[in-house]
Amino acid sequence: MSDENRPNLERKDWIKAAYEVLTHEGVERVRILTLAEKLGITRGSFYWHFKSRDELLQALIEEWQQKNTGALLAACASSDDFTDRMLAIADCWTNENLFDPSLDAAMRNWGHHDAQMRRLVQEEDQKRLKAFQRLFQDHHFQATEAMIRARVFYFTQVGYYAVELGEPLKQRVQLYPDYFWVFTGESLDKTRFQHYLQKALQQHNTE
């Protein structure tokens, strides 16, 4: 295979290919030769964009931090209205373009056999939990109760992904008023929920 094609391959192409391998096969399979074969190009092209495999892995970590944690933090800060913020987080949970659970799972699996990665996962979890706690505190819950609600809210979703229910999106989102009541102790306005439900299903059908 000739290296003539390598200038046409961009850094983002290697990251995208590595992302797919990571989420489907695990970090052990994120190898330069494996990715080169996947992309149909020589491995020499890799070094136009990265100094080493470690640099590529760091790029994947940054992608995860910006995509998954970034989406949740942005949702928490998206409005001054508590319900709007909760619905924005619900958008993250149901839209893989915002929050990719397979990427989160891959990072957690990576952390099972890599102490540094495990610490990074714990740090990202703490960022998310702190944001959720602030969300509940802003809604006038006291600090300890806000912390517990944040944990229940977050750990429930992490567990939901872990058990892989395969629940249809429509069934999942229609339960959200009940989830909202469990997480907050308040009822979700029916009109606002119907607007959210319509948007969520419409977005899913157009993907």
Largest sheet: none
Q: pLDDT below 50 for ≥5 consecutive residues: which ranges?
A: 1-6
End-to-end separation in angstroms reads: 36 Å
Q: Which structural class do you get from the secondary structure elements?
A: mainly alpha
What percent of the residues sit in helical stretches (DSSP H or I)? over 70%
Number of helices: 10
Rounded to an integer, what's the Rg over CA atoms? 20 Å
Mean pLDDT: 93
Strand-residue fraction? under 5%
Order of secondary-structure elements: HHHHHHHHHH
Structure overview:
The protein is an all-alpha fold. 71% of the residues lie in helices and 0% in strands. The protein has helices at residues 11-25, 32-39, 53-76, 82-94, 101-111, 115-138, 143-163, 169-174, 176-184, 190-206. It starts with 10 loop residues before the first helix and ends with a helix. Residues 1-6 have low confidence and may be disordered.
Please give a quick description of this structure.
By secondary structure, the chain is mostly helical. The protein is built from ten helices and no strands.
Summarize this structure as a short list of keywords or feature phrases.
single chain; disordered N terminus; 71% helix; 207 residues; mainly alpha
Topology:
Layout lengths: L10 H15 L6 H8 L13 H24 L5 H13 L6 H11 L3 H24 L4 H21 L5 H6 L1 H9 L5 H17 L1
Helix pairs in contact: 1-2, 1-3, 1-5, 3-4, 3-6, 5-6, 6-7
